[in-house]
């Protein structure tokens, strides 16, 4: 799993836990729904840290809390 996929999966899990949709996350975060959906799109390669921060703000969590997940601990090296 790549970094972008791990970020998308982490947001999926958090949305399920908080019982909110991607549209709801977008509204809470002050971003457009298309931004939320593009983050989940497997064909898109990158997601910005600013977008991640906005989504974290919408979920009322810190970046540290967001990245404190086994999903990120298991990522492979990006430098090959």
Overview of the structural elements:
- There is one protein chain.
- Helices cover 65% and strands 0% of the residues.
- It has 80 residues and is mostly helical.
- It has one domain: Orthogonal Bundle (434 Repressor (Amino-terminal Domain)).
Give the mean pLDDT: 90
Count the DSSP helices. Answer: 6
Write down how many β-strands occur, each being a DSSP E stretch of 2 or more residues: 0
What CATH architecture do you see?
A: Orthogonal Bundle
CATH topology: 434 Repressor (Amino-terminal Domain)
The structure class reads: mainly alpha
- Sheet with the most strands, sense and barrel status: none
Please write the CATH class name: Mainly Alpha
Assembly state here? single chain
Q: Quick one: overall form?
A: globular
Comma- or semicolon-separated keywords:
mainly alpha; 65% helix; single chain; 6 helices; 80 residues
What's the short version?
Helices cover 65% and strands 0% of the residues.
Please specify the SSE layout and strand pairing.
Layout: H1 3-18, H2 22-29, H3 33-40, H4 49-59, H5 63-67, H6 70-73
């Amino acid at each position: 799993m790549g970094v972008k996929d791990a970020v998308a999966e982490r947001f999926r899990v958090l949305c399920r836990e908080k019982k909110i949709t991607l549209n709801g996350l977008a509204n809470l975060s002050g971003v457009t729904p298309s931004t939320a959906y593009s983050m989940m799109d497997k064909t898109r390669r990158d997601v910005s840290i600013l977008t991640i921060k906005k989504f974290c703000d919408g979920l009322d969590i810190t970046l540290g809390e967001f990245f404190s997940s086994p999903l990120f601990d298991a990522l492979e090296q990006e430098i090959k």
